[in-house]
Design goal:
heterodimer; A: alpha/beta; B: alpha/beta; 2 domains; six-stranded mixed beta sheet; four-stranded antiparallel beta sheet; binds pyridoxal-5'-phosphate
């Protein structure tokens, strides 16, 4: 069983919802990323989603865009992200790791070369925002070859027949984008999310994680009541950036993320049945 | 036999997946996939709908002022002493460039789809102006995204858009030019996809945009082909057009693709020279990758990050190019070449002084290459250059370079 499937199964048995924090690799600095990942696990992260910085992050709101820009200025690149994964795995062989990024860096490395390097580093899954099912065949073949999950997005605009198609090709979990918009937007409608998740569940038995508009313990709590996983990104990237811009150290930036994650974890667990 | 295969070849792209060979496609976030599918269905229906075509033709004739003339640049041709050069006068269109051919078409699509708001990205501001113009005429809300750098160098067009009632949003992320404006337009679209139609200004973006923009711009080549036959009794020997995203070039080239005797040259922005990295010539010096929804030649670094580009002209300052051009390059049907900043600038002055026609700086790249090409040809031969736009918007840029305070 893959790490992701195993983790969701374990959580299901405990009646808990997965907390999935997103950070940009190399933001605010390259040497923060791995210690931050370990610390997030301590603060209750069940799966870590590591953003691969890209020059043109079309689906990101301003907060994560700036995270990408900082990471690129720090010289972060895809092969170095994989090196960070490998470093993390030295001390943590159980927490599932997911890369989230855009098609071009992966395509530029070559799908086969990426799959080999990523599985050797200990990566579990890939989510490419701009590779929809129509374009996924080539990269899917490579990910399947090395036993990695490919995480698909379902959006509020995805019609039912596409949900069926996505469900057929998905593994690991399905990522529901909670709103029409970019990451960090603020207009999440929980009732609508619940309805859409029900629609997806009628076509798939995979766990469903929800992301894009969740920013604090309250919103995480309401979403956790209907989802199997909650993704929090912009809020974490923001709290780090704020800390650093006030002159805080790397350690303080890590503390700030951990503090927020602790609260969110509590919020999520307070819904546990 | 051969002519039979080649006759069909150019009609086979894009295929059902929106691919031109290995290029094109739909590399966008899931949220937009349904909107692209809707757009394709509506477009494919309207493309064969006589009433819709009449609506477009009517607008092109009475609002845009088509057909645009095919003008023999006699003094310029004489001064070169080679091939006779004809200019396809897209600068005489309403709003001053070829861009309006496309905005007329897409705005009518928006209207048919019941959208009340249109958005656009712009570099030189010509596409933004053309979009704001049509939006004013149809009573649609209009927001134009423009890089901060371009807002400074195309200040006149920014004010034009505002006069037309559009909101101009300054984009300060990334390289602050056309590609970043396109990122921001995509972000807006994903947020407001229910009410908003994204009018893309060139033959790039996800399928079906490269196809429908090509179709709307092909009026240029259809007219030019008929005008050439009527005025010179024959087809031209060569076509020349500048290539930013590639819409004016594909518009001129496409109706001639099956005419094997017609050579074609797409001129990219050579900036300070393609060996310097300070240019915007992905077909000449780039490699294939994915940006803005399609696979195409790009300027990218070893990590697949999109590189900053440089061109004197905002409208060519883009690291990608329409996927059909990538395909036409690979199959060898079109030659892609470059003209540098200084060569374009010289051509700008030359045409202004010798023909009384002031070209856009984008267009000046095509003119610079045409001059070299013409010199290598005979007076019995003819070249058509797409005079894609007029240079009024660039007067302040040129003055600044020439050290003149206006
Ligand atoms: C006059 C003119 N020509 C050419 C271009 C380049 O665009 P394309 O390559 O799509 O024709 C522009 C873009 O702004 C323009 O304004």
């Amino acid at each position: 069983m893959s790490r992701i499937a195993g983790r969701f199964q374990q959580l299901a048995e405990q009646g808990r919802t997965a907390l999935i924090p997103y950070i940009v690799a190399g933001d605010p600095s390259c040497d923060v990323t791995v210690p931050l990942m370990h610390r997030m696990v301590k603060s209750g992260a069940d799966i870590i989603e590591l953003g691969v910085p890209f020059s043109d992050p079309m689906s990101e709101g301003p907060v994560i865009q700036q995270g990408h820009e900082r990471a690129l200025e720090n010289g972060m690149c895809l092969s170095q992200v994989l090196a960070l994964v490998k470093e993390f795995r030295k001390f943590d062989d159980t927490t599932p790791l997911l890369l989230m990024g855009y098609a071009n860096p992966v395509m530029h490395m070559g799908y086969a070369a990426f799959a080999d390097a990523a599985s050797a580093a200990g990566l579990d899954a890939l989510l490419t925002v701009d590779i929809p099912p129509e374009e996924v065949e080539e990269i899917n073949a490579e990910l399947q070859r090395v036993g990695m999950d490919n995480i698909f997005l379902v959006a509020p605009t995805t019609p039912e027949e596409r949900i069926v198609r996505i469900a057929a090709g998905a593994s690991g979990f399905i990522y529901y984008v909670s709103l029409k918009g970019v990451t960090g937007a603020g207009h999440l409608d929980v009732n609508e999310v619940a309805q859409r998740l029900a629609a997806i569940r009628s076509h798939s038995t995979l766990p469903l994680a929800v992301g894009f508009g969740i920013k604090d313990a309250d919103s995480a709590k309401t979403v956790a009541a209907v989802a199997d996983g909650v993704v929090v990104g912009s809020a974490l990237v923001d709290v780090m950036a704020q800390t650093v811009s006030r002159g805080g150290s790397s350690g303080q930036a890590i503390d700030a993320v951990a503090g927020l994650l602790d609260e969110i974890r509590k919020g999520i667990d307070s819904t546990a049945s | 036999m051969t002519s039979n295969t080649s006759e069909n070849l150019y009609d086979t792209v894009p295929d059902a997946q929106g691919r031109f060979g290995q290029y094109g496609g739909k590399f966008v976030a899931e949220t937009l996939m349904a909107a692209l599918a809707d757009l394709e269905v509506v477009y494919r229906t309207l493309a064969v709908d006589e009433q819709f075509q009449q609506e477009i033709d009517n607008d092109l004739q009475h609002y845009v002022g088509r057909p645009s003339p095919l003008y023999e640049a006699s003094r310029w041709s004489d001064s070169i002493g080679g091939a006779r050069i004809y200019l396809k006068r897209e600068d005489l269109n309403h709003t001053g460039a070829h861009k309006v051919n496309n905005t007329v078409g897409q705005a009518l699509l928006a209207k048919h789809m019941g959208k009340t708001r249109v958005i656009a990205e712009t570099g030189a501001g010509q596409h933004g102006v053309a979009t704001a113009t049509i939006a004013a005429r149809l009573g649609l809300d209009c927001v134009v995204f423009m890089g901060e750098t371009d807002i400074q160098r195309q200040a006149l067009n920014v004010y034009r858009m505002k006069l037309l009632g559009a909101e101009v949003v300054s984009v300060s992320s990334g390289s602050r030019t056309l590609k970043d404006a396109m990122n921001e337009a995509m972000r807006d679209w994903v947020t407001n996809v229910d009410t908003t139609f994204y009018i893309i200004g060139t033959v790039a973006g996800p399928h079906p945009y490269p196809m429908l923009v090509r179709d709307f711009q092909s009026v240029i080549g259809r007219e030019a082909r008929a005008q050439s036959l009527a005025q010179t009794g024959r087809l031209p020997d060569a076509l020349v057009a500048c290539v930013g995203g590639g819409s004016n070039a594909i518009g001129l080239f496409h109706p001639f693709l099956q005419d094997e005797t017609v050579a074609m040259y797409g001129v990219e922005a050579g900036g300070h020279g393609v060996s310097t990295n300070q240019h915007a010539a992905p077909l000449t010096a780039g490699t294939p990758g994915v940006l803005h929804g399609n696979r195409t030649y790009l300027m990218q670094d070893g990590d697949g990050q999109i590189m900053d580009t440089h061109s004197i002209s905002a409208g060519l300052d883009y690291p990608g190019v329409g996927p059909e051009h990538s395909w036409l390059k690979d199959i060898g049907r079109v030659n892609y070449v470059v003209a540098k900043d200084d060569e374009a600038l010289r051509a700008f002055h030359k045409l202004t002084e010798i023909e009384g026609i002031m070209p856009a700086l984008e267009t000046s790249h095509a003119l610079a290459y045409a001059e070299t090409l013409a010199a290598s040809m005979t007076p019995q031969q003819t070249i058509i250059v797409n005079l894609s736009g007029r240079g009024d918007k660039d007067i302040l840029t040129v003055a600044k370079i020439d050290g003149i305070v206006v």
